[in-house]
Design goal:
two-stranded antiparallel ribbon, alpha/beta, globular, 374 residues, Rossmann fold, eight-stranded mixed sheet
């Protein structure tokens, strides 16, 4: 029995490594060569020479932001992109879009989402922004990448009432003031336009699978403490519906999804998601902690790397144990809201009033939490 269990574990580890290699270079299922439709688009904002790149701890950073922005980090973001595609049946957005003309992706990272939207909406202009120029240059004609800091003093530089959708994904810990981000989004959305924010929780959902004194809960505790000290706390506080409502958004909805950790689900699609999410977690350890713990908590680099190694070993030990890991998952939230106005709003309001449901906040569940018996 021990030999069989060991062989099964080794098989899963090989499959996970294969997922890591595949996802690291995969772009998007929407990203397809389009002959003359693909061209070289240059970044049309700040010059790359205006960006201060910092080499430290073997990684590349921009300014004082504690997350790296290098090829290793882009590989991790591509894996995350694949997870979102799996969870949403290859849909890039959860909001209703009707012939959009301009879409803004804040914190575009690898640019996969923006390029996918460019392919899906060829008549729309897709703008992806980030604090560094790391996106591909061969992109659809309607996709543009700009170097921009969404928290820059003076506000966003685009005209008001400009976008059909403002999209933010994986931005927990990126901003010191989410209220300002939502205020800017409201100004720059067209009447009837949507904001969509997606993020994972701070990983507390799976801590019950580990002893309190083990490296996993200790790492989560240190990360949270350091992020708060940096002025850019992690977590999902920015995904509370009240954050949008107080800025004037209507039809606000927050949905929660369970993301399996490891290959324990029986259903094939969820098993794939579980493997990818485990790979993403293992790939994120040093990215989340190296600069953050050294700078904010005064750790030595070697101390951080040792804790990362202990975390990785403990996480793999539990996640690859099919029985022990059953039910282990992270949580993901999707927050959406609409700017009042736009075509058809009167009809929608009338329908809502007729149903007796005029409230602007809806709290719902998306894909159900993955249960061990599924």
């Amino acid at each position: 029995m021990e030999n069989a269990a060991m062989e099964a574990k080794e098989t899963v580890e090989r499959e996970i490594e294969e997922h890591r290699r595949h996802a690291a270079y995969a772009k998007s299922v929407f990203r397809r060569p389009q002959t003359d439709q693909d061209t070289v688009n240059s970044t049309r904002s700040l010059y790359d020479s205006d960006v201060v790149y910092i080499k430290k701890h073997g990684r590349t950073y921009v300014g004082d932001y504690y997350m790296p922005i290098d090829e290793e980090e882009l590989d991790r973001l591509r894996i995350i992109h694949q997870i979102y595609l799996q969870m949403f049946d290859n849909n890039l957005s959860t909001v209703p879009l009707h012939s959009p003309t301009r879409i803004l992706d804040i914190g575009t990272g690898s640019g996969d989402w923006a390029m996918g939207m460019g392919d899906q909406w060829p008549d729309a202009e897709i703008i992806g922004t980030d604090i560094a120029k790391v996106q591909p240059t061969a992109v659809p004609l309607n996709v543009f990448f700009e170097i921009d800091d969404a928290e820059e003093e003076g506000g966003w530089t685009w005209p008001a009432n400009e976008f059909d959708l403002v999209h933010l994904r994986n931005m927990a810990g990126a901003f010191s003031n989410w209220d300002n981000i939502y205020a800017e989004a409201f100004v720059h959305l067209k009447p009837g336009g949507w904001i969509e924010v997606m993020d994972f929780d701070d990983h507390r959902a799976f801590l019950e699978f580990f002893a309190p004194e083990s490296s996993v809960p200790r790492m989560v505790q240190f990360m949270g403490e350091a992020a708060r000290k940096s002025g850019r706390p992690r977590g999902v506080q920015h995904l509370e519906p009240e954050m949008l409502i107080k800025r004037g958004f209507v039809d606000v909805q927050v949905r929660e999804f369970g993301i399996p950790m490891g290959p324990w689900p029986e259903e094939r699609g969820l098993k794939t998601v579980g493997k990818l999410w485990l790979v993403a977690m293992l790939s994120s350890l040093e990215a989340y902690t190296l600069r953050l713990l050294v700078r904010e908590l005064g750790w030595e680099e070697g101390e951080v790397r040792k804790l990362c190694g202990d975390f990785e070993a403990e996480l793999k030990r539990v996640a690859l144990d099919g029985e022990r890991a059953r039910g282990m998952q992270s949580r993901m939230r999707v927050l959406t809201g609409r700017k009042p106005g736009g075509e058809g709003e009167d009809e929608e309001d009338a329908d809502a009033d007729a149903d007796g449901d005029g409230d602007s906040m809806t709290t719902g569940m998306g894909t159900p939490t993955v249960n061990p018996g599924d």
